[in-house]
Amino acid sequence: MTAIFSFRCTSCYNVHEGSPSFSFNAPFQYNALSDFEKSEAHLGSDLCYIEDDRFIRVCLEIPIIGVEQPFMWGVWVSLSQNNFERYRDTYEEPVETDEYFGWFCNVLPFYPDTLNLKTSVRPRIGNMRPYLLLEPTEHPLSMDFANGISIRRAQEIAEHVMHSS
After folding, report:
1. Is 154 helix (H, G, I), strand (E, B) or coil?
2. Which of 63, 98, 110, 142 could cross-link 137 (Cys pair, CB 3.0–4.6 Å)?
């Protein structure tokens, strides 16, 4: 396995080292709010509340074939009230055997619409954000998650994210 992912960018010609990692500071639903609505909501680094909707920040790891580290997406998912409360109550001492159904709440660049893909969330210990599993479907993101992506595709996605306007 290749220890370090690196590539020469075809857009900026710089060499980028390390597996790509991109994140969203908020769920799509929060970003769609007016300024007044945002003042009524709560957005933290790991939790978000909008009226009766509850969101948590998680890690979606897409394997890169032949590379040790995955392509990482920091995204948000919505959880039911009960699952959100369980997650919040065990936040300091996560229970790794817990699993929460959720809905994907970000629009990833490069992929067709990713909003509301079905997910499962698994907490992790060691101050790590929860791990996200995607339900197996024909959606390209779900297929990439299940099968991994080539180094070339990882570069293509990273370049698109870094250099699209």
Report:
1. helix
2. 142
Tokens 């293509």 sit at which residue? 156
Question: Which amino acid, 102?
Answer: G
- Cα distance between residue 159 and residue 144, in whole Å: 17
Q: Counting runs of H as helices and runs of E as strands, what totals does the chain give?
A: 5, 10
Residue from 22, 26, 60, 71 nearest 46 by CA: 26
Total-model pTM: 0.90
Q: What residue segments make up the domains of the chain, in order of their start?
A: 6-163
pLDDT class for 165, splitting at 50, 70, 90?
A: low
**Tell me: the pLDDT tens digits for 72-129?**
999 999 999 999 999 999 999 999 999 999 999 999 999 999 999 999 999 999 989 9
Q: How far is CA 74 from CA 62, 129, 158, 160, in A?
A: 11, 9, 14, 17
Contact status, residue 68 vs residue 3, Cβ threshold 8 Å: yes
Residue for token pair 């490069």: 110
